[in-house]
Amino acid sequence: MSFLTPLAAPISVATTTLGIIQAGKIGDYNAAVNNRKAAVLEQEGKLIDKQLEFDLSQFDKEFRKLEGKTQVALAKSGAATGSGTAQRIKLSNLREAEIQRNTMTYNASIAQAKKFEEAKFARINADIAKEQARFEQIRLASNLGTSLLTMKG
Fold this sequence. Notes:
This protein is mainly alpha-helical. 90% of the residues lie in helices and 0% in strands. It has helices at residues 8-77, 84-150. Helix 1 packs antiparallel against helix 2 (84-150). It starts with 7 loop residues before the first helix and ends with a helix. The relative contact order is 0.17.
């Protein structure tokens, strides 16, 4: 019998305890990483609204410029504004502008929903990381128990 045999059980307990503690720390770290990722994704989702507001204001500004240029072009051509071709052009431009605004709003809402969904999955991954760490801790503890029960001393 080796002189280390009496120390086997305490060494096993000590190293397994360290492993259990480390597994918990790894789970906490991975959960924190995923929670941080979720927070960043949620922030990006909120910024999409701000970007949409800016894009819509820029679009409206450019559209007003286009309306002005169109009116000037019609006036230069001698067409009567408010009737006939001039009226059809104006209505067409207004319809097109509304379609563009709706498209921008729709695309922003889809992008925002995707960001929020990614954030939800990141939070789920954080919970999974914690559970995996708990399972690893339980596995290590049960392996220690099995080892201690089968040791002969």
